[in-house]
Write a structure and sequence with these properties.
Order of helices and strands: HEHEEEEE
Distance between the termini: 31 Å
Shape: elongated
Number of helices: 2
Helix content: 25-40%
């Protein structure tokens, strides 16, 4: 349920961007959401569709680019996706260490008319 206030802020930012750049309405909002960000992209898209009524974002499309979390091998340094029940590097016998990849949450772009 914490996606509602975040979605409200996304709409507010998109509307401000539209006004500041002389647009008449928002066409598209592109988001980047990491799987470990704490936010569910589908919930944000649902809220976006519902609460944009009567705003400059009404009818706009909210696209979500999902980022899969990655570990970095402590031996070879390569990035890889964690497999179920293991932190083993698929390239060598090293162990994966957590990174910030997969924690992203930001507006990538806003398209206006």
């Amino acid at each position: 349920m914490h996606e509602l206030p975040v979605t409200q802020n996304i709409i507010k930012i998109a509307e401000e961007h539209c006004r500041e750049n002389g647009g008449s309405r928002v066409l598209t909002v592109d988001l980047v959401i990491g799987e470990y960000s704490g936010y569910v992209g589908e919930a944000i898209q649902t809220y976006f569709d519902v609460i944009t009524e009567g705003t400059l974002c009404e009818g706009a499309v909210c696209n979500v680019e999902k980022i899969q979390p990655k570990l970095r091998c402590n031996k070879c340094g390569r990035l890889f996706a964690k497999q179920l029940l293991t932190f083993d590097c698929p390239y060598c016998d090293g162990q994966g260490v957590a990174t910030d990849i997969g924690k992203e949450f930001y507006i990538k772009s806003i398209e206006i008319e």
